[in-house]
Amino acid sequence: MWPNAPRAWALAGLLALACANVGAQTKLRAWNIHPDGYPVTQALQSFTDEVGKATKGRYQIEVFSNATLGDQPKAVQMLKSGEVDVAEFSSGPLSDAVPGLKALNLPFLFTDSAHMFKHLDGKLGERFAAKLQTAGFVVLGWYDGGGRSFYCANRSVGSFKDLAGARIRVQQSEVYIEMVKLLDATPVALPFKEVLGALQQGSVDCAENNMPSFESTGHYKVARSVYVTNHVVSPEALVVSSKLWASLSAEDKEAFRAAGAQSATYMRELWNKRVASAIDIATKQGVQFVRVKDVAPMVRRMAPLYRKYMDDPSTREELLAIIGN
Ligand code: BDP
User: Fold this and answer.
1) pTM score above 0.90
2) Which residues belong to the signal peptide in this entry (predicted)?
3) Three-state DSSP state, 172
């Protein structure tokens, strides 16, 4: 009996460990800037539910919405360092961390979301994802960032020339800052959550965003004139940290990937409905929409931006691929 005791103890120990592992749960944190009910929030929720189901509850992801964990540029750094595990980012702030992504923010590059996804769901998407992965971000789905337009408080805009001299809020992102300067306006980089207050107080005259964000933030209650330019059609990305990714088994990676893909499909469906309802809500509240008639003069203004990023080896090839198709 005695000679076998150490073995018996070891076996009992192993058994205890195995039992503990069966119920082991890993809790993860997801960063999100949007409120409840927004397409991104709903898609993130469906992602976390799917991951929970597919891993039988071993991975539990809590979604922190409304930027409660910090603003986007900060969250980009938090994800990179593994302080948060999952996030949904606009390609604006993301491209400041991964310069090869800047091509995605160039004005008038994609004509609409269908054009953008034709590229992102193919080879080009893989190339952008590879650039992101090298920088610490693993892409699990491309979400729709829609078309962004300018809107102003106390100023009606019927031509891009009416934006001259305005203080325009932009995301913390180089291409946006450069674009606004080329319109002879002053870019003011502000966190998303501070834009409403800035419009109300008049510290900025205008901002630019897609229609669901224009509506969900209440910007439309202050900025009553929208100049419908769709000047930037760009994607957003559902990403997880490389640190989390490296810790997953091959099977769990597959579960995360599948959940990401299905959440992206879901998000894009929700998006189109939300664009329509946002425009409807703002119109009913008396917001004036003026559609750009001819984008050519505005595109010509952007020429220095196109030259700059065509000359830049980190964006040139992607730009050529998009322009040719
Ligand atoms: C929204 C994006 C969000 C950005 C925000 C902004 O979904 O990620 O932070 O615009 O302008 O459309 O800051």
Assistant:
1) yes
2) 1-24
3) coil
Atom 1 in ligand 1: residue holding the nearest Cα = 213
Among 155, 167, 154, 170, smallest CA distance to 73 is for 170
d(CA 213, ligand 1 centre) in Å? 7
- Asked whether the beta carbons of 100 and 75 are under 8 A apart, the reply is no
Cα dihedral sign for 194, 200, 206, 207?
positive
Atom of ligand 1 nearest to the CA of 169: 11
Q: What is the pLDDT of residues 48-71, one digit of tens each?
A: 999 999 999 999 999 999 999 999
The tokens describing 322, both together, are: 């998009």
CATH value at residue 314: 3.40.190.170
Q: Which residues line ligand 1 (CB under 6 A)?
A: 33, 72, 90, 145, 171, 192, 209-210, 213, 236
Cα of 169 vs centre of ligand 1, distance in Å, is 12
Cα of 71 vs centre of ligand 1, distance in Å, is: 10
- Overall domain count for the chain: 1
Residue 48: inside a domain, yes or no?
Answer: yes
Mutate to test the pocket of ligand 1, among 41, 171, 196 (most ligand atoms within 8 A of CB): 171
Atom 8 of ligand 1: nearest residue by CA position: 90
